[in-house]
Design goal:
The protein is of the alpha+beta class. The chain is 35% helix and 24% strand. The protein is built from eleven helices and ten strands. A hairpin with a 2-residue loop joins β5 and β6. The longest helix is centred in the N-terminal third of the chain and has 26 residues. GO terms for molecular function: cytoskeletal motor activity.
Length: 332
């Protein structure tokens, strides 16, 4: 039986056909018994589940935020980068989709096998270089005559930018991105076979008044060892893991050396605004505590102890008599 759910209109049409004799019950049974074949294109093999694609999208949304901060600091202008889509396509189809002349940065990501490609629209690349050279950030589309100086500036900028992928991927793999090749013609790309499935993360990028796309192409061979870490169950287990005992000890050690204010409160009093305005030198304010009552000791604005006043080495001091318990902040 098919698992598809029929709409009300389809049910009505089916009942009408049976009642008018256009279709007999036997014909309906025969149709149900026939095997339904679903067309599958082996050149567009879907090797990643929707769950894994969503995980990759979340990871690179974080990468886009990191890049926004990085480029804003480097270029000293308005920068906005956001993920537009995440798709899995054959590598050949991705190559056909990029412009004939563009900025292609190929990175090694040890210890993972294979390469990751970052394709940058020339508009964006020239706008970045213009800002680095002290300009207003004007974009250009012509890159046929890319000089050695322009190539060096752009490749260094993109290499340092892509280094931030280490932080974005920290939850799934410890990688060390390194720029291995800089190209402008996609026809020279020989990263993987044409039918290899790749994940393409497209990011819309705005620098000042110039906008364009940055595409990150990740072959299946790179992600294959860490695919189990892209599932929802792995993320849930990671969140439920206990904290590292060593981290807890370091935190306790830092807390013990932290400075907190300690105040010995002699008492307080309420007076009217009129009395306050009439106060003068030599006036006496009566407190709400007797001279033989213990003082209240506050630690960080919280009452913690009672004490009695005294003197130690010719300096005022207090001697703690008891500790105060209670309140939401107190763990005891």
């Amino acid at each position: 039986m098919s698992s598809e759910v029929l709409s009300q209109n389809e049910i009505d049409a089916l009942l009408s056909a049976l009642s008018t004799g256009e279709m007999s019950a036997d014909d309906f049974k025969k149709e149900e018994e026939q095997k339904k074949v679903k067309v599958y294109d082996f050149k567009r093999a879907l090797r990643f589940s929707k769950d894994q694609i969503r995980s990759l999208t979340r990871i690179h949304e974080n990468f886009a935020r990191i890049l926004t901060t990085y480029f804003s600091a480097q270029l000293r202008t308005y920068v906005q980068i956001s993920v537009v889509s995440t798709d899995q396509v054959p590598f050949e189809e991705f190559v056909r989709s990029v412009p004939k002349m563009t900025l292609l940065n190929i990175f090694d990501v040890p210890p993972l096998d294979g390469h990751i490609l970052m394709e940058v629209n020339p508009n964006i690349g020239y706008a970045m270089m213009d800002r680095v050279m002290g300009g207003k950030g004007t974009g250009m589309n012509k890159i046929e005559n890319l000089t050695e100086i322009e190539t060096k500036i752009m490749s260094n900028l993109f290499e340092r930018a892509f280094d931030n992928l280490r932080d974005a991927w920290s939850n799934i793999a410890e990688i060390d991105p390194m720029l291995s090749e800089f190209e402008v013609n996609p026809q020279f790309l020989q990263m993987v076979s044409p039918n290899e499935t790749v994940v393409v993360i497209s990011m819309n990028t705005t620098i000042g008044e110039t906008s364009g796309m940055i595409n990150i192409c990740i072959p299946h061979v790179v992600l294959e060892p860490i695919i189990p870490k892209l599932s929802v169950s792995y993320w849930m287990q990671t969140k439920q893991k206990d904290k590292n005992p060593e981290d807890t000890k370091n935190l306790e050690k830092r807390i013990k050396t932290a400075h907190v204010p300690v105040v010995a409160e002699l008492g307080n009093s309420d007076i009217t605004i009129d009395d306050f305005l009439m106060l003068d030198i030599g006036d006496v304010i009566q407190l709400n505590r007797r001279i033989d009552d213990p003082l209240l000791i506050k630690v960080g604005e919280m009452p913690k102890f009672t004490a009695q006043p005294g003197e130690l080495n010719n300096r005022l001091a207090v001697q703690i008599l008891d500790s105060l318990k209670g309140g939401e902040e107190d763990d005891e």
